[in-house]
Amino acid sequence: AINFWKDPNAESCCICGEEDAGEKHGELSCPYDYLVSSVGYVPCKARLAAWRDDRDVPSGHRAFLRRFVRVTNLPEHCPRPARIAELFARFGPLRMWHVAMDAPAVCKGFACLVFERREDAEKAIDELNCYCFDGHSLRIDWFYPSA
Question: Does the keyword RNA-binding apply (predicted)?
């Protein structure tokens, strides 16, 4: 089962929005990558504090990162992860999505999605937070970078 999708027409990194400026990089080598961070677990409050106070992050990157949505409390049994992307795609085009899986049809309980527009991400968060998905009340929020 496919549990990761990236817009094949994307000309920039889906994490930072950086277009080819000399050295092209992908999502796995992006300096703003917080999904495969070497920092390890950082509590949400610490990430939020760093997010608000970090003056080194250009405002364009901040605006771009505000398209990232995290979904938690997904059911463990998930034979078709694309259903989650389909649920969110009703609110606007997605640039990328990823459902964390332990094995085929065994979900780790979380996913992340990148919307084309911030407004679509905001609407999805507002309308789908606490949405009942296969008997689980989903927790939908912004995805903050690691501190």
Answer: yes
Around 63, how many Cα atoms within 13 Å sit in the side-chain half-sphere? 5
Separation between Cα atoms, residue 84 and residue 113, nearest integer Å: 9
CATH at residue 51: 3.30.70.330
Tens of pLDDT along 126-140?
999 999 999 999 999
Q: Is residue 4 part of a domain?
A: no
- Rounded CA separation 111/138 (Å): 11
d(C-alpha 51, C-alpha 43), whole Å: 12
By C-alpha distance, which of 146, 138, 147, 1 is closest to 70? 138
Instruction: Tell whether 138 is covered by a domain.
Output: yes
For residue 129, give its domain range: 23-142
Give how far Cα 67 sits from Cα of 46, 47, 105, 110, 130, Å: 20, 16, 27, 17, 19
**CA distance from start to end of the chain:** 32
Structure tokens at 32: 């703003």
Strand order in the sheet with 94-103: 4-6, 94-103, 106-115, 68-72, 139-142
